[in-house]
Design goal:
The protein is an alpha/beta fold. Helix content is 39%, strand content 18%.
């Protein structure tokens, strides 16, 4: 047996990964990669908004080698700014075309839905509009789209599909007492505790994990359509370790890495790896469109104004 691992780790600096959750998955992927390569992975894990803000703050002295975001559009935005290193992993051959570009590729995919507390005494919702009904008065939370990339994707998906009717729905939800509850986990917690009845736009993998733990909740994908949120992985052009960064992407897209993604209740990016939950092909999806950053900022501003955050 060749004892090469200590030499590799001694001669190679740690790889730095910035990721927008789930933190437990990032740790398992880092451990698996270190076991394979001998290279340690330092992790900064937070919400999409905070991860992107940290990248901006560190422009003069970049620290991230690899970024995993929860919003596909963030990959496009960084690529347009010239911040990304082009790389196509050979392991991406099994990833559907819509989930890869020359600059970034999906780690896994989540979907947005309604998480309903089945012990809340409220009727089971079928669509987004149901949460604006009197039965759900003051009983609904939603993640803040300024903090959750996936929540912003849903906001844009509904606006793309329904135009002003989407904003009518948001106004009705506001009038019905829906509250902005911070990041994804903070929106789900009061529903798990029974203080609220449902989450509008919950990230599904977080809820599935809680469901496995025995919580009285149900994940519902609205009949009127929802959005999926492919989680883009990308290599920063400023990395000092491009080969190690590429090798990390290869590991995440390997069968072993993708099985870890599936265990975290995400849909694997690869089509040949099974999932523990419904795949995107089983969902009704809102029409996708490429949305410019200014349009996203305008929607965020309008949403924040509507809910009294500005």
């Amino acid at each position: 047996m060749l004892l090469t691992t200590p030499l590799i780790s001694a001669e190679t600096q740690a790889l730095t990964l910035y990721t927008a959750g789930p933190g437990s998955l990032a740790k398992k992927l880092a451990a698996g990669y270190q076991k394979q390569s001998g290279v340690k992975v330092d992790i900064f894990q937070s919400t999409t908004g905070k991860v992107m803000a940290r990248l901006e703050a560190e422009q003069a002295n970049p620290r991230a080698d690899v970024l995993i975001s929860a919003s596909w559009d963030s990959g496009e935005a960084l690529q347009q700014r010239g911040w990304l290193l082009a790389y196509q992993s050979p392991n991406a051959a099994q990833v559907p075309t819509q989930f890869k570009t020359p600059y970034y590729v999906a780690q896994g995919i989540s979907a947005l839905g309604i998480v309903w507390n089945s012990a809340s005494g409220t009727p089971e919702p079928r669509d987004w509009q149901d949460l604006a009904q009197p039965a759900f008065k003051d009983k609904v939370t939603t993640p803040d789209p300024a903090l959750s990339g996936a929540s912003l994707d849903l906001l844009m998906g509904l606006q793309n599909a329904r135009s002003e009717k989407a904003w009518t729905l948001f106004s009705q939800l506001k009038s019905n007492g829906m509250i902005i509850a911070g990041p994804n986990a903070q929106a789900l917690t009061p529903v798990l505790q029974g203080a609220k009845a449902a989450v509008f736009g919950a990230v599904d993998y977080v809820a599935y994990s809680s469901l496995q733990d025995g919580e009285s909740i149900k994940v519902i994908f609205p009949a009127g359509g929802t959005v999926i949120a492919p989680r883009p992985m990308m290599i920063m052009k400023t990395t000092q370790q491009p080969e190690q960064a590429k090798a990390f992407i290869d590991y995440v897209l390997s069968p072993e890495g993708q099985r870890l993604v599936a265990e975290a209740w995400l849909m694997p990016a690869r089509g040949d790896i099974g999932a523990k939950r419904p795949l995107f092909s089983a969902l009704t999806l809102l029409p996708l469109s490429t949305v410019q950053g200014a349009t996203r900022e305008a929607a965020l501003s309008r949403f924040a104004t509507l809910f009294g955050q500005r």
